[in-house]
Amino acid sequence: MVNAYILTSGNDAAGRDPKAWVMEGSQDKLNWTVLDSKTNHSFTYRNEIKIFDFPNTVAYKHYRLRITETAGSPDIQLSEWQLLHK
User: Fold this and answer.
1) Exposed, middle or buried, 3 (CB in 10 Å: 0-12/13-18/19+)?
2) Residue 37 sits in a domain of what CATH number?
3) 77: which residues sit within 8 A by CB, 6+ positions away?
4) Are 24 and 37 spatial neighbours (Cβ–Cβ below 8 Å)?
5) What is the total count of domains within the chain?
6) pLDDT in tens, 26-81
7) Alpha-helical regions (H) of 1-86
8) Where in the sequence is the domain holding 56, given as residue range(s)?
9) Between β-strands 49-53 and 33-38, what pairing exists: parallel, antiparallel or unpaired?
10) pTM for this prediction
11) Residue 86: is its pLDDT beyond 90?
């Protein structure tokens, strides 16, 4: 069961950082449940590690991170995305 995740910003262009996203879980890859969402988020520096906790009691088979907005670039960059059970 996932109830937290880590995002690490990329190592070069701040404009490629995710600014808004939706974290979702699914049992069948057809029906998705929103587990967490962020808007107007910013990373302070390159390769910055941030942990995001959210309440969840369901062990989904599949997870996805839908980035809906970047900090300005048409390209998206993350160094790492980790799923956690805390």
Assistant:
1) middle
2) 2.60.120.260
3) 9, 10, 12, 13, 16, 17
4) no
5) 1
6) 999 999 999 999 999 999 999 999 999 999 999 999 999 999 999 999 999 999 99
7) none
8) 4-84
9) unpaired
10) 0.94
11) no
